[in-house]
Design goal:
The complex is a heterodimer. Chain A is of the alpha/beta class. Helices cover 45% and strands 15% of the residues of chain A. Chain A has helices at residues 30-45, 81-97, 114-121, 148-156, 158-167, 173-179, 191-202, 207-219, 225-240, 243-253; strands at residues 6-11, 14-19, 51-56, 103-107, 110-112, 124-128, 132-134, 170-172, 184-186. Chain A has a six-stranded mixed sheet, with helices on both faces. In chain A, strands 5-7-8 form a three-stranded mixed sheet. In chain A, strand 2 (14-19), helix 1 and strand 3 form a beta-alpha-beta unit. Chain A starts with 5 loop residues before the first strand and ends in a 10-residue tail after the last helix. Chain B is of the alpha/beta class. Chain B is built from twelve helices and ten strands. Chain B has helices spanning 29-44, 66-70, 74-78, 82-91, 107-113, 141-149, 151-160, 166-171, 184-196, 200-211, 218-232, 236-246; strands at residues 4-10, 13-18, 50-54, 59-61, 96-100, 103-105, 117-121, 125-127, 164-165, 177-179. In chain B, helix 1 packs parallel to helix 4 (82-91), helix 6 packs across helix 7 (151-160) and helix 10 runs antiparallel to helix 11. The longest helix of chain B has 16 residues, at 29-44. The interface between A and B is small, with 5 and 4 residues.
Amino acid sequence: MDYQTIIAVEKDAVGYLTFNRPKQLNSFNEVMHKEVSQVLKAWSKDQNIRTVVISAEGRGFCAGQDLNDRVVDPNADAPDLGLSIEKYYNPLIKLITEMPKPVICAVNGVAAGAGANIALACDIVLAAKSATFIQAFCRLGLVPDSGGTWFLPRLVGRAQAMGLALLGDKIPAEQAVQLGMIWRTVDDEQLKVEAEKMASHLAKQPTYGLSLIKKAIHASAHNNLDDQLILERDLQRLAGRSSDYKEGVQAFMHKRTPEYKGC
Amino acid sequence: MDYLKTSLVKVGVMLIELNRPEKRNALNNATLQELVDVLHSIDLDLAVKTVVITGNTQCFAAGADLNELAQLDVVSIQQDQRPLLWKKIDEFSKPIIIAVNGFALGAGFELALHGDIILTGENAQFALPEIGLGMLPGAGGTQRLARLVGQQLAMRWAMTGELISAEMAQQYGISSQICPTALTVEYAIELAGKIAKQAPLAIRVIKQSLKSIHEVTLSQGLKLERQHFVWLAATQDRQEGINAFLEKRKPEFRGV
């Protein structure tokens, strides 16, 4: 299918979603929101897609909201920024975090504002060494959205989260790794290759089990230990009934490589 | 049986599944009548101790049957059998565990509120959407919900039809447990099995005592509780329970 603002490719059980507004540093407008959401929703349900990769065209990853969509007339009433958050950004973050399969993000360049936080919502973030992360919101008098104020303190701790969100400095990818914000960096020219390599590995893994891991880790943010132990019991009970678990045990006993189907 | 599936899933536990998936388990009169008939036969069957009622993974019950409702004018609504059917469900003497996955809307929500214990899946969503149709909940929705969650939330939910998530339902005391959706029915059956092993006569008066809290004053309720307490002293199961405890063994209750 053809899209105006993104490229969506399905290959070997991996869904590749590429932001494609390079001239605007892949910032989001309404069309892009709709297209991204349509693709992610479809892949979320599609059993044949077992890993999703989010990346971008051009030199930037995503500059967040396209401010051309939000020209503020000084004489008009204040805009309701909550509307686009409610309608687009929040559902997008939920689509990523509730996707029952791994979502890899390959950050090729600057990830600013909502662009940075969309990356942080993904399960594994790879970044080119030249990529940067900016919590740009504070510079405009705004609050980090798209889950920023939720992800940051959980990823890097309150002290670093405050520094990042209140100062809005540009953080190089290497520092983002040191802070625990992202998984790791790779050489710029290797980013695409490494992301594909990781995706094709994950797409052959027990997808259902991976989706339960993802669920458990997300739930840990609001569960106490007792609740989390109960959840682990429940999820393990489900995982133990999957055909992939059977296959995994069989393969181990027979010393062969398991062939997982994702269910 | 057209709209229900029943199965004895465990010793003493009857599972009743609403089974009208093409209508999202809409509760038409025929379904309710079937449910009443099944419950009536279970009430007489000493082998069944508890009941689990559920729908399917996507939907518990999406409300009443609107086609049926639309045909009723003020006179035929007066003569409608439905209030009688609901009353019979309310009068069922054994514990009802409700397992809600997906939507429990309108009459579906009200059916759930007829249960004694509600378990939900993570995907459960409750609502009273009658207001959107220019109606009000007509099977105890305003009454039972307000008694569970208080006037503020009941007013709001009845006047807006807003969806109530599984988390909210648990937080406000509509349900007692959230389960992974795939395990809700299993856990409900497990719970029902636990209750089925208890002394049936004690379970019966516990249900009566607890249901009476909305009917009587505290002092009347305390009197009723005391009467039940005294009455149980005449049962053999009570003796068995105490003996088993003192002899450090598992009791064997016989319902006598």
